[in-house]
Amino acid sequence: MTTRAGFIALIGEPNAGKSTLLNHMVGAKVSIVTHKVQTTRARVRGVAMEGESQLVFVDTPGLFQPRRRLDRAMVAAAWGGAADADIIVLLVEAHRGVTEGVERILEQLAEVATGRRVALAINKIDRVKSEVLLGLSAKLNARFNFVETFMISAEKGHGVADLRKWLAKELPEGPWLYPEDQIADLPMRMIAAEVTREKLTLRLHQELPYQLTVETESWEDRKDGSARIEQIVYVARDGHKGIILGKHGETIKSVSKAAREELQEFLGRKVHLFLQVKVRPNWLDESERYSEMGLDFRDGNG
Q1: How many CA atoms lie within 13 A of 13 on its CB side?
Q2: Which of 60, 62, 154, 278 could form a disulfide with 20 if both were Cys (CB 3.0 to 4.6 A apart)?
Q3: Confidence bin at 240 (pLDDT 50/70/90)
Q4: Where is this region: G1 (predicted)?
Q5: What is the mean pLDDT of the chain?
Q6: Which range is least confidently modeled, 41-50, 162-171, 227-236?
Q7: What's the distance, CA 133 to chain centroid?
Q8: First to last CA, the chain
Q9: CA angle, 70 as apex, 276 and 273 as ends, to 5°?
Q10: CB atoms within 10 A of CB 216
Q11: Binding site, residues?
Q12: Three-class SS state of 250
């Protein structure tokens, strides 16, 4: 039996569908944009099995034009993940085409991807006509030497199996890197924090999520089998605290309920979740907050 294993980096602009694709590949919801710093390889997000191949996905933060320290650290983490991978998959949204952001990624890929295979996955194909897809594929392949192009819908699962089979075949021969039943290489405290942060992101204005972080302050496994989880949502300003709490605390209640329900499903047991919101004006400049998110504080310089 010939086994294969390797690291696959999913890169692209924010909202290109990387997390949706990862969750579909792995067959379970892993989390949103957690990046665990590891001294070796990269930020592991999920593990999938395909035949005798083990696909270890490195889901990177969305690549965008960084403006502040946190942005720069996230972008550095993304390119770090790509540079450490065996195969890189660039996701491009079919209906948005070659944006300025995609142009920048293609330029950087030319430097980072030397000697690595890079595949193109055009996502959200259900949003455009086939002639638009063919034109976009031709345009992107003229700009970069992709080894393979896939047309997919990460949300609906179209084309995902073909991509997974191709990746399984292309990975280097070698022993598996993780136990077969392991979905993700993330401590549960981080997964819990990410679930809550995702619910906040879904509920709040687009800009605010970059100004907040969630940390799991305590986790207690109780005798009755349930888990008591206390989390703190850190925000940069008083005004942000009000937004998160909402009128009569409605927003934080609904976020807490949604996060609790998802965690119960994920853990398969009852969860008691308690959220607190704290204002820390300089959290974006505190190295500990970056460590909690799995980012390197030093990458935010420049």
Answers
A1: 18
A2: 154
A3: confident
A4: 12-19
A5: 81
A6: 41-50
A7: 25
A8: 49
A9: 20
A10: 20
A11: 12-19, 59-63, 123-126
A12: helix
Q: Please state the length of the chain.
A: 302
pLDDT at 37: 28
Q: What is the pLDDT of residues 191-229, one digit of tens each?
A: 788 889 888 887 886 556 557 888 889 989 899 999 999
Centroid of chain to Cα 163:
18
Domain extent listing, the chain? 4-170, 188-300
Higher-confidence residue of 80 and 201: namely 201
pLDDT value of position 180: 72
> What CATH homologous superfamily does 188-300 map to?
K homology (KH) domain (3.30.300.20)
Say what the pTM is. 0.65
In this predicted structure, what is the pLDDT of residue 33?
Answer: 33
Judge whether 4-170 and 188-300 match in fold: no
- How far is 113 from 120, CA to CA, in rounded Å? 13
What does the block give as tokens for 73? 């650290």
Q: In what order do the strands lie in the sheet with 227-235?
A: 212-221, 227-235, 271-279
Tell me how crowded residue 236 is: count the other CB atoms within 10 A of its CB.
19
Which range is most confident: 27-31, 58-62, 96-100, 133-137?
133-137
Cα(104)–Cα(110) distance, rounded to whole angstroms? 10
Nearest residue to 21 via CA among 92, 99, 75, 113: 92
- Residue identified by tokens 């393979």 is 148
Tokens 């990046």 appear where? 35
Residues 6+ apart with CB under 8 A from 242: none
Number of helices followed by number of strands (H, E) in the chain:
9, 9
Binding-site residues for GTP sit at 12-19, 59-63, 123-126
Residue 167 neighbours by CB distance under 10 Å: 25
Strand, helix or coil for residue 302: coil
